[in-house]
Backbone:
């Protein structure tokens, strides 16, 4: 029988990874962790352009929203003991794929070469322009 709710989980069950919560930020509204540390890997859930302390949407243009999203990614990485330099893969969701060029130019201001792998896809994001998830390799530091 597969447990269907946390209350049905075996009390002695342990996982090989740790959930990383963000200090000073409210808990996620959904059933997910903002970041997970699994050995030398850090997985950052999709970050959106919201101020983590107020929840307010930051910016109404792709460049400004990208900067806020990357600040949020960096904050999640920091809470897990990683940095932007440790990122090995990024997935970008854009409401308007025509924003790719502006997004890319802004991303280049923040990330430095050699760049991690990256996939960009068009998506319906319910009122925001960009969302980014990331994977980092900490290689034993942190």
Residues:
């Amino acid at each position: 029988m597969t447990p269907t709710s946390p209350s049905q989980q075996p009390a002695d069950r342990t996982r090989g990874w740790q959930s990383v919560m963000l200090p000073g930020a409210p808990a996620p509204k959904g059933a997910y962790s903002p970041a997970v540390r699994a050995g030398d890997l850090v997985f950052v859930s999709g970050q959106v352009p919201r101020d983590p302390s107020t929840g307010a949407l930051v910016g109404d243009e792709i460049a400004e929203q990208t900067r806020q999203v990357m600040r949020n990614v960096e904050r999640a990485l920091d809470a897990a003991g990683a940095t932007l330099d440790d990122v090995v893969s990024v997935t970008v969701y854009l409401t308007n794929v025509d924003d790719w060029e502006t997004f890319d130019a802004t991303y280049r201001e923040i990330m430095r070469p050699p760049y991690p792998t990256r996939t960009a896809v068009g998506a319906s994001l319910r009122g925001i322009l960009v969302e980014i998830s990331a994977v980092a390799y900490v290689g034993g530091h942190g």
Q: What stands out?
A: The chain has one domain: 18-137. The first strand starts at residue 18 and ends at 20. Residues 3 and 11 are 12 Å apart (CA to CA).
